[in-house]
Specification:
By secondary structure, this protein is an all-beta fold. It is built from one helix and 20 strands. The longest helix has 5 residues.
């Protein structure tokens, strides 16, 4: 089995007010990337921490999920067509953790022997009890904190197959940003990596790294080329700019890259 390095990819659907009033769950790792053979069983453990000052009750369940064009995740309780959640077993649907305590929570994935090559994707949701959160000068609203742990499971040697299908300059965080349209023709998700560089119209040399958003099988996703900065200072790109380098993904896959961007 392969597990990715834990990264800060926790998906939290809670406002800061709810955090202040009791939902203080942390989870590690926030994402699993596993490889399992059909007919075999993979057992995994995640550690849930109650960082609050009072004991807390958490409800756990699996969910299907989708990533929209704006990289927002939506969770669905209903089984989607082709969902692999019937293969998933979780330890318990409810746990209690003392203030400052930790809980090692187990789950397992057991694909059937005839499962086709591809990728199984699901989430394990950790939800707190509803709390009434008072808005300043307004009414109180019931809010429940939630964390989503994303799990990818590849079967039968599934791999991404990424290619750049187009490019453009788009507004990202109010900045004109070079963006690649990346198509995944494979049967597993992929993420771009690599260091790229270019010299803009003002003669300024700029280094870039691709956004690490997942590109799911069968989709084309907009991937920003993020300016690499050693110091937190604004970098204004003077277009046009030609960016060169090498893009990498998957198991040691790579391709040379050269693309001009103009507003």
């Amino acid at each position: 089995m392969l597990r990715s390095l834990a990264v800060l990819a926790v998906l939290a659907a809670i406002p800061s007010a709810a955090l202040a009033q009791g939902f203080a769950a942390l989870v590690s790792p926030p994402r699993f990337e596993l490889s399992v053979k059909p007919g075999e069983r993979a057992r995994e453990v995640m550690e849930i921490t109650n960082a609050g000052t009072q004991s807390a009750r958490y409800r756990l369940k699996t969910a299907d999920w989708a990533l929209d064009a704006n990289a927002a995740v939506t969770f669905e309780d209903a089984l989607k067509p082709g969902s692999c959640r019937p293969w998933i077993a979780i330890e318990s649907r409810q746990i209690n953790i003392a203030a400052g305590g930790k809980y090692r929570y187990r789950f397992e994935v057991a694909p059937p022997a005839d499962a086709p090559a591809g990728e199984c994707r699901f989430a394990i949701l950790i939800e707190g009890d509803e709390q009434n959160v008072q808005t300043p000068g307004g009414p109180a609203f019931p809010i429940a904190g939630r964390l989503g742990v994303i799990v990818y499971v590849t079967l039968g040697g599934a791999q991404p197959l990424l290619e750049v299908a187009g490019s453009r300059v788009s507004k990202v965080n109010d900045e004109d940003t070079p963006v690649l349209l990346v198509k995944n023709s494979g049967n597993a998700h992929g993420r771009l990596a690599g260091f790229l560089s270019g010299t803009d119209a003002a003669g300024k040399k700029i280094e870039f790294t691709p956004s690490t958003l997942p590109i799911l099988p069968g989709e084309t996703r907009a991937i920003s080329l993020v300016v690499y900065k050693e110091r937190e200072e604004p970098v204004k790109i003077a277009y046009p700019i030609t960016i060169r380098g090498k893009l990498e993904w998957g198991d040691n896959k790579s391709a040379p890259f050269e693309q001009s961007f103009a507003k």
